[in-house]
Amino acid sequence: MASTQFLCSSHLFPSSRSSFRSSHLPRFKPYGSSNFHSKLHCQRPHLVRAMVSDSNTSRKQVEIEYDPEGRINKLADEVDKDAPFSRLTLFSPCKINIFLRITNKREDGYHDLASLFHVISLGDIIKFSLSPSKTTDRLSTNVSGVPLDDRNLIIKALNLYRKKTGSDKFFWIHLDKRVPTGAGLGGGSSNAATALWAANQFSGCLATEEELQEWSSEIGSDIPFFFSQGAAYCSGRGEIVQNIAPPLSLDIPMVLIKPQEACSTAEVYKRLRLDQTSNVDPLTLLENIKRNGISQDVCINDLEIPAFEVLPSLKRLKQRIIAASRGEHDAVFMSGSGSTIVGVGSADPPQFKKKKKKKKRRRRRRRMTLFHFFNCAILTFGPHAVYYSATPLSEYDTLGTSIKAAVVYLATALVKLICLATFLKVSESDSFDPYQELLKALIGFIDVAGLYFALAQLTHRNISQNHKFQAVGLGWAFADSVLHRLAPLWVGARGLEFTWDYILQGLEANANLVLSISLAALGSLMWLRKNKPKTLIPIIYVCAGIVATMPSITSYLRRGLGWHFPKIVGFELFTSLVMAFISWQLFSACQRPSL
């Protein structure tokens, strides 16, 4: 495939006195053509306004400004006609992952991968020109929603180049964006590699391509690949690049289909479970591709399962493409972390069949999904009713006390929400932050204060102290389940596909019921029981502290140790039973008369 020089230096277009013509278009010839079906295809691109001013040195400078009305289509073609090297127009191709294996989770939170990257003909056009400014770069683009400040990888790449080389050059850049974001095609990474190469050309090649490739890994794991020859076996975080002979021939067609929804890479990796990944050696996949070419068996993507959980419609889209292609595609697979589905072997868009008897199917599906919802709801809330009926709570008619405790819980949850919104820093990172978790644990003790109020102030004429904590704990747990689980069940458990996640949420609610009653029992011993053995007081407080900080403990297991949801729910069930047994023993010991 195209090397970096073929990718970039073949697209040096010296300024001329003629206008920008079709002959100036990039000459990049990829391995395979592509038809890209996405929302961007139907958008009318916004244009830019070019403001030309003459300087004392007779060099014409152009300031590129965003023109949302799109009335003027003068780009930067009037920049310095006489200068030998003042303007650079480059093609920035995207890539697909023919296979993507996730092999390990690293201590720094990243994942080790092994993947076969391959560039294709779809890409962006980026135009660079020198800026008279010595402080800032200016970036414009033809689509909305693309950041134009230092959040953009192009600006990050230029800042990185100046930091590494000491160059003082700044640029005007116009990005003609054709690769959509959130597609798993590496469009932003390719833009960053192109920007590094362009900055190096403008600065007289202060760095080698090997140095550019090494530096680029500091701002993105996929960027080093775009300094390869167009096809490479990438490992580590993606920054270890080994060039290989391109497995896709020049004339092979392909089709790329991207839904309007995008997949969040962070959310996909958050749901990744290593025990669900493929066990095929990536080197074996690479060898099979070299020997036999592309087939469905070798196009393995370990991120498909978590991506389909994030975006269930993506799984159905892939299945429909396979069914509609009728064997015309050699392979159909997802690229990167999604949400683009790639079909190799045919450039014809799949012809999806219209569904027959649509109304009947919808009714049948609605009945099936409501059945799943009711099953999950019974698992979540059924134990509350069973506990109330099977204990003396129903005999003493303590429903009113439980309802009052639930109201106290809701008021407590509102106070917690205000405190969290005020003091907790919002972060998109899913890594474990000890300071933030400590702050959440401290705010979580508001629950303990609310529980104290419920135990001390709520009264019932027929209830004894021994049963009061049960009524309060039951109301507390029921309100928590309604607040945190009813809405997710109603929205998610009615999905068209069965998932164990909502069954696990029901089991988690059962563990929370046991923990709430245990905490209420320990609180009753701490605050209401006066004549309790002094030797048991430290044990009571330690157990109450453990139960009160269970949310922080499970957060550490998930974010710090990388435990998955089923394992966490198992831990919560086990811990709830242990704490219930200890609380029962402590309560019984405090009931015995002292000698």
Automatic annotation (TrEMBL):
GO terms (BP aspect): terpenoid biosynthetic process
Molecular function GO labels: 4-(cytidine 5'-diphospho)-2-C-methyl-D-erythritol kinase activity; ATP binding
Domain (GHMP kinase N-terminal) ranges: 152-229
Pathway entry: Isoprenoid biosynthesis; isopentenyl diphosphate biosynthesis via DXP pathway; isopentenyl diphosphate from 1-deoxy-D-xylulose 5-phosphate: step 3/6
Record-linked PANTHER family: 4-DIPHOSPHOCYTIDYL-2-C-METHYL-D-ERYTHRITOL KINASE, CHLOROPLASTIC
Enzyme class, spelled out: transferase
Protein name: 4-(cytidine 5'-diphospho)-2-C-methyl-D-erythritol kinase
Family indicated by similarity: Belongs to the GHMP kinase family. IspE subfamily.
Provenance organism: Arachis hypogaea
Keyword Transferase: yes
Transmembrane intervals: 368-386, 406-426, 438-458, 509-528, 535-556, 568-587
